[in-house]
Design goal:
This protein is mainly alpha-helical. Helices cover 57% and strands 0% of the residues. Helix 1 packs antiparallel against helix 4 (43-55).
Length: 65
């Protein structure tokens, strides 16, 4: 049985790092490096967390540059 949208959202928000990222992004867009600054994780890990948040529709990302 495939996961429902609400299951994906609850899974994404079940992680404290992802909740912190959503809270920070609620104030406006920011770069991945800026988003990672207060977190004790690598940029790779931030990218993985962002993928989970994107997959459930909580955030959108855009590549610039």
């Amino acid at each position: 049985m495939p996961a429902s949208k609400i299951d994906l959202i609850l899974h994404a928000l079940g992680d404290a790092t992802r909740r912190a990222m959503v809270e920070r992004l609620s104030h406006g867009p920011m770069s991945v490096s800026k988003l990672a600054e207060p977190l004790d994780v690598t940029l790779t890990a931030v990218g993985q967390h962002l993928k989970v948040l994107e997959d459930c529709g909580l955030v959108k990302s855009q590549k610039m540059g």
